[in-house]
# Entry
Amino acid sequence: MRLVVVSAGLSVPSSTRLLADRLTQAVRRRAPVDVRVVELRDLAVEIAHHLTNGFPAGKLAAALDAVAAADGLVVVTPVFSASYSGLFKSFFDVMDQEALAGKPVLIAATGGSARHSLVLEHALRPLFSYLRAVVVPTAVYAASEDWGAQGLPERIERAAGELVPLMTALSAAPAATSAPEQSEQTGQTAAGPQEEPGRAVAGPEKNGTGGFTVVPFAEQLAALSAR
# Structure
């Protein structure tokens, strides 16, 4: 499985990158994954150029491709002005809006005060829900006083434990749903009703550009449970 870690930390060393590394290690303890780390600090200029000219340069294009091809994401941002950083938001602004559809995402943030911990729920979770990602239930926030204290390691482990099953299930889902099962009673496939000549299909949503069929997450998990 391919795990892409997006870190929006700006300083060196960075507590944001440190939290990203802790989350990555927790995922690796549960499953073998190929990890690609995307440091947005190194892509800041290319992201700005993409916002103005509409074309990604080499390193940014490679990062966007890696995110689109990942089986799961860990995304970590510092808190700026009670929200995610502008660089973090800009990276996902230039991404194809279909790239994260159905993709498991673990959200995390760092800040100087525990008072900003709700940024995960009022900023990051709505952002990735809008992009139709599957956001794991446990989000991880690390304030300055959390490092070395009780609670943070447990949240990291719990979040990683939620991400790995989603990555495993969704990376296997295409194989489980690629062979439609015929219903003896209804004559419908598992992915929806059969298409009749000259009649539009009423079922899973289709991407108008690539013909890609989007199977709802609940149906994918149900198909896996039935195997």
The radius of gyration is 19 Å. The CA atoms of residues 184 and 190 lie 12 Å apart. The helical segments are 15-28, 44-53, 58-69, 86-93, 119-130, 152-177, 217-225.
